[in-house]
Amino acid sequence: MPFNPYQHPLHRMMRAMRGPRRRGGEDEALARGRKFGADDLQLLLLALISEKSCHGYELIKELASRSNGYYSPSPGVIYPALVHLEEAGQVTVASHGKRKCYSLADAGRERLAIHREHVELTLAKLVHIGRKMELARRAYAGEEIGEDGAAGWTRELIEARRALKHALLLRDQAGPDEQRRIAAILQRAAAEIAAARKPEDMHESRT
């Protein structure tokens, strides 16, 4: 069974100290194995199939790989979704012995184009939760984090994210004008980060 820091006694103790929290966090939901909705799962499968034709088991392995083993749907989840995509004409199927190979059809390509931004964000979340879990695993194991960072994140990025969270916490009681000022800063930063993204950034963590 893969390491899951959310089941670690230290994590449960920290949750008890924090008290009640809002449910529905996406990272924790994935780490606990909560299923995607039917639409999201279908879009994920279409996105993977658009990269290369593959069998159902290969899709399961690819989802597990991108999430570093923390999201590995069962065949009982994957194959009904593939049947639905086939019946909707969004994938085509070729039989290779007892196995079926799925390829993207024009209808599936059109659906992906409509939801491209959402699909990219969902795939990025899969990678993100896997990297977070790897960082937590190494921390719980007492492993030293090198100068190049942990789980692919540099120390500079980790420290910058921590500084941002701290700054926002200190402004938690800010009035409307200050909130709008902060929102404008964050929107500019988000736009700059998104504009600088290169296509290979979506794949370099898997190479």
UniProtKB/TrEMBL annotation:
Domain of life: Bacteria
UniProt-listed InterPro entries: Tscrpt_reg_PadR_N, WH-like_DNA-bd_sf, WH_DNA-bd_sf
Every Transcription regulator PadR N-terminal domain range: 45-113
Annotated protein name in UniProt: Transcription regulator PadR N-terminal domain-containing protein
Originating organism: Chromobacterium violaceum (strain ATCC 12472 / DSM 30191 / JCM 1249 / CCUG 213 / NBRC 12614 / NCIMB 9131 / NCTC 9757 / MK)
Lineage, broadest ranks: Bacteria, Pseudomonadati, Pseudomonadota, Betaproteobacteria, Neisseriales
